[in-house]
Amino acid sequence: MKMNSNKFLIILSTLLLTSCATDIDFHIPLNRFDSPEVNGGFLKGDVGVKYGRSHKVTTAEVVEYIFPSLFDPTLSDETAIEASGHLSSNFSLGIIKRVDFVFKSYGDGPDVFGLKYQFLGEVASEGKEGWKGAIQLTKGSMDEDEGRLNVNLASGGTRNYNGRIELETYDISLNFGYRFNKYLITYLNSVYSYYDSKSTLTSNTFPTLEIDGIVRTYGGLLGLRFGQVSQHVTFYLESGVMHSRWEKNIKETSVPIGFGLDFSW
Q1: What are phi and psi of 38, to 5 degrees?
Q2: Where is the signal peptide (predicted)?
Q3: Local structure of residue 17 (DSSP, 8 states)
Q4: Closest by alpha carbon to 201, among 152, 158, 145?
């Protein structure tokens, strides 16, 4: 009990002393909301909004304390991964009957675009029962300012920090499912993502700090899409197991649960 009390006091003291922080981070989406059906024809498409889970990857952080006359700000370049909530939007458009162009926008992460090819079963616009299968390839990038923090020093001076992040990402998924009727399809989506990141933290008094690393995310997602495409509105519900690993052996496993809405034409 005494040990637990000491830990509690340490955590409480840290929270009380900490004033503000700026960090360099990005989000990797865990829920993907992809069914194994393409739209099914030239210019047939859909647009949607989703809420799911993500892995937030923090590569560097500057923390300023409430009493700057006693404590200088601290700088951490220890990468951390934690689960977080995540909003996203999506758009897809048929190129030919079995191929769609896809675009996804993720908050605080790179937008991605690519192609989806359905190699098994009938397409979404036909609404026929049976097994479905599709493969999807996407890529994306992000080059973003992470903000500026001016901190006070115990010596009475100030220090400026500026953060920046550059990302390249590649993603592949293999998706199989079964349509029971014109209203319901279930699917199992296997996903592999590769994120190559470069974080830069600059200061007016210290050398520039660069943190380079690769995060690999993979796992499986079980979901359902409910609603008739010809009636324009469909709903998604999805969960699974997803794992992210930073190349320095930092890792996180999550069970994401998400839901969303699509409008089709």
Answers
A1: -90, 170
A2: 1-23
A3: H
A4: 145
> Of 121-130, 180-189, 194-203, where does mean pLDDT reach its minimum?
194-203
Residue with tokens 């300023």: 64
Torsion angles phi and psi, residue 109, rounded to 5: -160, 165
Separation of alpha carbons 195 and 217, rounded Å: 8
- Residue 211: partners with Cβ closer than 8 Å, 6 or more residues away: 24, 59, 60, 77, 79, 197, 198, 199, 201
pLDDT tens by residue, 18-31: 445 567 899 999 99
134 closest CA partner among 169, 109, 105, 97 = 97
Tokens of 88: 């996203």
**Secondary structure of 25-66 in HEC code, one letter for each residue:** EEEEECCCCCCCCCCCCCCCEEEEEEEEEEEEEEEEEEEEEC
DSSP state of 156: S
- Side chain identity at residue 4, one-letter code: N
- Compute CA 197 distance to the chain's CA centroid, rounded to the nearest angstrom: 14
Rounded Cα distance between 117 and 82, Å, is: 32
Side-chain half-sphere CA neighbours of 166 within 13 A:
6
pTM for the whole thing?
Answer: 0.85
Residue bearing tokens 């359902």: 224
Tens of pLDDT, residue by residue over 80-138, are 999 999 999 999 999 999 999 999 999 889 999 999 999 999 999 999 999 999 999 99
Buried b / exposed e along 183-210 (16+ C-beta atoms within 10 A):
eebbbebebebebebebbbebeeeeebe
Spatial distance between the Cα atoms of 180 and 263, rounded to a whole number of angstroms: 21
* 29-264 topology per CATH: Lipocalin (2.40.128)
Rg (C-alpha) for the chain, rounded Å, is 22
